[in-house]
Amino acid sequence: MKKNLLLSLAAVLALGAPMLATSCDPADDPSSSMVIIENGSSINLGSTGQIKTKLDGELTWTVSDENIATVDENGNVTPIAPGEVTITVSNGTNEEEYKITVVDPDSATSGKVTVDYDALPTEILPGKENGINVEDYVEVSGVGSWYLTTSTPDVVQINGKTFYGLECGEYTVTLHAGRTVRALTGNVISENKVAFNNFYSSIKDNWISYSAISGVYAVTDDYFYYPVDSNETTQTYTLAGSIRDTQNDVWRNFTVEASPDATGATWFDINEATFEVGYGYGASKEIEGLGSFDVPASNFRELIFRGESSGMYYIEEDGSNSLTNMLDAIAPEAWSNIVYYCEELYGEIINGAMVYVADLDTNPYITFFPAIIGEEINYIDTLELPSTAGTIQEFPAYIQVTDFNKAGFTAADSWVKAPTEVPSLDVSAFDKFFDNMAEKKSYTMKMDAAWYENGVQTETPENMTFTDTHQDIFSSISVLSYANENAIYTRYGNLNDNNVYCDTSLSMGDANIQNNHTDLKFIHQGSFHEATGIYDETTGNGFNVATQSTDNAKIKDIWADSILVPTATFGHAKEITEETGGKTLFEIASFTDLQDGKYYFNSYGPDRNFSYMQGGADMGLSGIFYMFLFHVNQSYAFWTAYYLGVTGYLDSYCDSYFTVSEDELVMDVTFDYSTDIKYNIHISYSDVGVDNVPADAKAYMENPYKSTMPVQDEEGPAEDSSSSAQA
Prior knowledge:
This protein is an alpha+beta fold and 727 residues long.
């Protein structure tokens, strides 16, 4: 075999040496992708070419645009992206130019591109050593080759499948795979931004925030607190908040005294001797609306001025409202309100925040200003709003966060590690009152709700009406209700033109309710009925207009089978007892304190999500608050409880308490709309055991229909087409 190989080689040589030499030159090998490039020729992406120059000596090769093609010291050309380019070769004395067109043979083909955007860096430092090799983050198929271009050549440089930063700024690099394109965007950042990223990422669950709207909040892993009272004479504060009871997996209320911190290290010096965990349940951080810095640091873009870092950043709002959610979680509801006021005052859409970071190396703090982000970034630092006195006042339109990892104090930290027993309030007086009502089956309920300015009843503030209907969010209304064993009689008064809010699409409310509107729910001949009318103060007749009746055969006994009376909803009905584990609603309620006979209600705890709605509907509010209003008017209850709940006003701006005695139960709720203007709800139950249902209602119940009206049995209304119900 070896001999034959040598003979074959000799035979080839005998045919002439040039043949062997030609086959070793890739430029002359038809099977190679290397092509000879001449002036004015074109070359496909994915190929390589060589320029055969006539110049001799030491040659220098240059290219007009390395983003389109590159050339090495031997004249080998590598196409990078479609376009025209000029390659120059010089020996120091003479030079040649070759104009070349790079062509994408797959320009009409749709390639398949998959980009791992989660892994692809969006921030890089300047310099080749910090460049990104795009091949590490993409999969491309369906085309012979792909390439990169950039619309920001001053910021990044393309080098084949790699790009790197030239100076700070935003960049866009586009990947082309035939007709398919993918944008790769990001920022070339400074060392300042790196320091900001490291600091921001180190923020855990411990900070102090300030807003002119939400005030001061200090937040840690296991507790939070805020000022609730101050003493100008002694320069001291009362701080209140909630703390996690780790042994029982619940949150508790606490208070502690504090004074301004003289050293400036934190907001307060805490008097640990005054730390006290009180009655009832506290709001968890989730219920309070306190969250974390859950927006990635890379979302904050560095502001560059003349190529240098300004030390400021900005962040745009996204489709999921992540910016608003984060800032509202740091300073509850503050950002939403700031944005609302900015847009109302200036008519501009606030779509982001301008962010200022100070003292990054010592005691850093971050300030978030509402920003209008367009071609330029404009931010608002001060709002001018009219006060209730009619004057214009200024307040800062920003949220500031500081004292990272320094918000805690020793007494609270110690209590979390070893919680002490929390006292409970004796609520047996409530149970005794409703036991008495359930036994005697009669009561009188009075309710008054109105707006007051400096203690004098006033009109509803303009901002407290629904924008679409201009009906009052909180109506000025009075209700008088009497109950006996078979009936509940209710009369409405003091309504204004806007009435109780009604939404017919939700089957909520009665658009026909007006002043002196009367409603009678009663049992007649074993079934449930309802009549309505207008009370005539002259005659004392409550049913002087047409009435209607409805039948619900399932209700045989108002006191046992329905939720129309308060004893059912507060724990004496069988269904309630089972749902709450045998406890009444007051037994699972949360009270913060008992002072001067007043049970102060905090709307937190197990009763918060309690409801007695068919299908297990969850109002997301305090069960007691909603249920008390429910017996006044279902529509009024729904909208009042819903609005106070979703806005957070029920938790932060309402003072609620109960008083109870053997003869009377009272609920008072005051919503602080402003320093001077308040909305007050006063509900009382009294005259337990006294039947005050009016005589005309009792007479109507005895004979509500003409004799032609069929008698309704337990299975439902009988069929009779001879007559319709009449008053």
